[in-house]
Amino acid sequence: MARDTLSDLTAFLAVARARSFTRAAAGLGVSQSALSQTIAGLEERLGVRLLTRTTRSVAPTEAGERLLTRIGPHFDGIEAELAALGELREKPAGTIRITSTEHAAATRLWPVLAGFLPHYPDIKVELSIEAGLTDIVAERFDAGVRLGEQVEKDMVAVRIGPDLRMAAVAAPAYLARHPAPQTPHDLARHGCINLRLPTLGGFYPWEFEKDGRVLNVRVEGSLAFNNARLILQAAEAGFGIAFLPEDHVQEALAAGRLARVLADWCPLFPGFHLYYPSRRQPTPAFTLLVEALRHRE
Predict the structure, then answer these.
(1) How many beta carbons lie within 10 A of that of residue 62, not counting itself?
(2) pLDDT in tens, 124-175
(3) C-beta atoms surrounding 275 within 10 Å
(4) Which of 130, 164, 194, 208 could disulfide-pair with 224, CB 3.0 to 4.6 Å?
(5) What is the value of pTM for the model shown?
(6) pLDDT tens digits, residue range 218-238?
(7) DSSP of 93-123
């Protein structure tokens, strides 16, 4: 196979996986126009259209999807083997791209990276902060970090933090004006501060459990945010009850700026996990980082 064809197939895989000429061009370090010409030339040589283009999106045709499915794993294997040659170097090397929520990056990833990277100067880590769920295969990430219950079953998941617990909290001034709720149903009589989900667009339903009884409660209030820090600030200012991960509010609870309610309705749930595709061969650099991040009781 001609070298130009291999290069063109690499370009096709980048566009088909990213579903975007803009993102693919940025990842390949070429212009959008040059990338578009490359794909057009490949389609002309093959005599079949591989991508359907609209003003808003790019998607593989039936032929393109077949080509993506057939050749994608082979190209991934080549990349993994080339990266694995780092085993022959004195020090592991390579760039590791990880998508994570802001909170997980600040509390789980960065504390480990700060101690890990000085020992491995040839390893580079790129963190991309995303509030919603990301397709790490399509976006060409090496791994993602999300709560254990959000990880797809076909992924390898490695626990990097302890179990977590949600906390319903309010300022003492608010609770002085409104009797504390005794059950989740009582939240209907309270002003609650909502979290807007970035992926689905709706509000996050507050999830409670006690003695095997599970309740998902849709709350109402005058404020809603898509940012946990703003929810915390609004709660401390007395605007209502907030529902946040326990480690978000520990400092405010210890300082007396907030008080817990419904604590017996907030059970533990799986904490943060690093996940990656089971079919992808980890590089030595990636394996080292996973072991550094792995949570140990």
Answers:
(1) 11
(2) 999 998 877 777 887 888 999 988 777 777 788 999 999 999 999 999 999 9
(3) 20
(4) 194
(5) 0.66
(6) 999 999 998 889 999 999 999
(7) -EEEEEEE-HHHIIIIIHHHHHHHGGG-TTE
